[in-house]
Predict the 3D structure of the following.
Amino acid sequence: MRASTSPARSSQSVLDLSSPAGETLGQTERRSRLGKPRKGMSPQQRRDVRVGLVMLAPAVLTTGLVLIYPMIVALQSSFYRINTVTRTQVFVGLDNYLGLRTDPEFWTALWRTLFWVVGAISTQAVVGILVAMALNKKVRGLNFVRGVVLFPYLVPAIVAVLTWRWIFSGTVGVANYLLVDLTGLLDTPITWFHPKFAMVSVIIMSLWKYLPYWALFILARLQSVPEELHEAALIDGASPWQRFRFITWPWIMPVVMVLVVLRSIWAFREFDMVYLPASGGPLQRTTTIPVYIRHVAFDLTDIGRAAAVAIALLILVVLLNQLYLRIYERSEARLD
Amino acid sequence: MRKRRKRPKWWIPIVVLAMVITACGNGDTTETTTGDGDTGTTLALPPDIAADPDFAGTGVQVVPFLTAENSPEAVTQITAIIEAFEAENPGIAIELQLTSNDNRAARIINSAAVGDELGLFEIERRWVPDFVQAGWLLPLDEIVDEIGQEKFVPGSMLYWPWDGHLYQYTSDLSAASMFYRTDLFDDAGLGTPDSYERILAASQALHGQGGVSGNAFENSNDGGVQRFTTFLWQNCGDFYNADGSLAFDRDGAKTAVEQYAELEKYTPEDSFSWGSRDPVNAYVAGRVAMALYPARLAYEVASNAPDIAADTGMIEARVASNGEGPRVVYGAVTSFAIGSTVKHPEAARKFLKYIFTGENMVQFALGAPGHVVPPNKEDQAALLAATDNEYVRDYQDWMKQAIDSTTYFNAEAQNMGSIKEDCTFEKSLVPMPWSSRVMGQAPVVTTMFQKISLEGVPVEQAYNEAVEEFRTQADEWKAANPWFKPVDENWMEEYGIHIGSSG
């Protein structure tokens, strides 16, 4: 069963940057740079290189201005105590970083960030796969449903949060009305933003908002699964779970991994969807690192320390993404 | 046949880049109304041109006006005022810059920090100490002096105690009143909620009756602070004394905490997560029997639930035991400042005075009658007389109460130590420079009440922890800001400031 259902690599993987000849982009670059000296270039090739450089310039400039420069400024700021308002600054060396080691608020926020990222990404991945599979069925009117599914992703975060705050309201909210009054599923209403549930409520809001993103990417991948694989599996008597486990999952996994990497990066730095529902509360239960950074920068008016926290978060995200990529490479190798 | 390769168009990316840069340059949200008689039109001008002292070579003085009042109605109203001003002052053009509440602080701070021109803009009190220290604000004393200090509600103009200047002009005030459902109170045979005992009795009697909660005294981040401070002050407590020393360890503060914690048992269960409008929504939906809130609630309930409005009483908030304690309620101040980088200070001052005094101010206040109250007593009288407005005419009693409450309002971050140890109330005008630390994202007071109601922490323990937190935050701030020194008790006399008696 396993051998027959392992999908042939008929298409390139999502992160595969191979050239048509089978070389990676890096290999091609190295060969042209080292194997062919520039002086051997024809005038046409030189012109092409010049045009290439000019074409690249806007992207390089933009990246430098909006990414590299702010990162350097943040790194530099992290060695100072800087008043957020007046920008007066005092050099404090590594104090901002050393202070983080003994700052309980930082560590609590860090653990909450991890809880938030794991909770948000795992629920979005699972439900995203289920929805994508449902949308992949050949049913009449599904195109309309696919369009509707996209809707939450188009809604601005502030609108989504305000809507959900209303849904979860204990006074006029519809969620408790449905669960208690209408269906009788629960005896007592849920206090959605109670410290015990606050982060779960935020994760539910986030699931609604970002589900379309997952569903559409996975759906696109699902639609490229060769039909004959499922047909062969059906003839072999494979159960729905076996078909998912040995055909669908290996096929969609590279996309899922890319989504996990991308969405994790976004979730680590997610501010609006976490801050807007409860402003970091109650009792700081939804204070993740970005919310904590806001607190340090604007309540404690120390933008230098806030920069140090941001750099610490950056390092953590880079390390975690290295881990993700390693898992991804391993899964790719297994697929081959 | 060999196909001829097309020659690359190397100039295309350069043109695209130039277009992008040009588009970015024009993407500023600046809108300018011009005084050229072309009424009702707005022109988008690049900031460098709009801010030119010699605008378009005509000698027109351009004053930027940044506001977060960006609703269509507000913009229409402000635009009309600007056009009228420009018609009366042909040499001045007002550049209306719209922003959102979320972006306002960042935009102002960034502009100030890099030395951009800041014209007239709304300023939060918590930024004032740093702005004044950095020399970013223009004194506005002469505007008040021209009108006369005595014409303003006592303590509504927030002078800077360390040099006696006025750096923020109060455009409007808003103070809390007690709202209660007369039908529910009558049915239950309850007396008017004008003391802690009566409020508690009503909360206990009405809580849970027909889906109604006893009161809307929430412990959400901002709302908790706003509601509790009235209890704190009327119980003779305060957060800090005028010299910056701790006052929250007074007996009165502890009593207020105990009483408020008791009343919290009768609020809707999720009130700790409420936003600023949720008390209004709860009251308008008929889900709470009492609310302590600014007059916006009155306007909203009259507009959206006239049947509930007919059964609503709006009275002065008296919340301490037996209705005793100083006459003081929580209130908010909206104020505007002029940046010291403004190119035409006199034109900016002239416009500030034009928009926030007299008939224009009254028209502005009619946008939310009772919630937006002018600080000038003559303007207050004019507002009350504006009976062309349906709400003002039909709810005269409520309007009177709303305006009257601004004469004894207090604001926690603006008047440190206004409640003296002898339990008298006199506005200090001394700001709490570390207010963002103790009243910011997770206010100390709110955290204290949330620990009590959500985690079951004993009141005394939560209170003691709050006392220490107030002390620590102030000490840390003072250590980082050595310029701070206690203000001389007689600073107002020294600088010739006469705000009149508070309360």
